[in-house]
Design brief:
CATH class: Alpha Beta
Oligomer: single chain
Radius of gyration: 13 Å
CATH superfamily: Glutaredoxin
Structural class: alpha+beta
Largest sheet: 4 strands, mixed
Strand order of the largest sheet: 2-1-3-4
CATH architecture: 3-Layer(aba) Sandwich
Bound molecules: glutathione
CATH topology: Glutaredoxin
Number of strands: 4
Helix content: 25-40%
Number of helices: 3
Number of domains: 1
Distance between the termini: 32 Å
Length: 87
């Protein structure tokens, strides 16, 4: 299961939302980052000790940092990479 944490009005989250939509991937969304302190809960810090959004969990894999998430998901699509390696 694909899960995304982050408020939808954060530009770094919007990058990831765009890629997930482009790839037509289903995911569960957790709207965090809007309420003060909700990125500093023990549960969220266990996922991302930097207390930042976006955060993606793909089964066991946890990826944070929007550009890393874009590259991670963009390189996995059915063997056809949306994002290619830089030369
Ligand atoms: N370089 C990181 C920056 C992450 C970042 O600073 N995210 C902001 C939102 S765009 C954040 O988590 N701010 C704290 C908050 O919204 O409470 C990335 O691209 O993911």
């Amino acid at each position: 299961m694909l899960e995304l944490w982050g408020r939808k009005n954060a530009y770094n989250v919007q990058k990831v939302l765009w890629v997930l939509a482009e790839l037509e991937l289903e995911y569960v969304h957790y709207d965090v980052g809007s309420t003060p302190g909700d990125l500093e809960t023990p549960e969220f810090l266990a996922l991302n000790p930097h207390a930042r959004i976006p955060l993606l969990r793909d089964d066991g894999a946890i990826v944070w940092e929007s550009n890393s998430i874009v590259r991670y998901r963009g390189s996995l699509r059915r063997g056809q990479a949306m994002v290619r390696r830089c030369a």
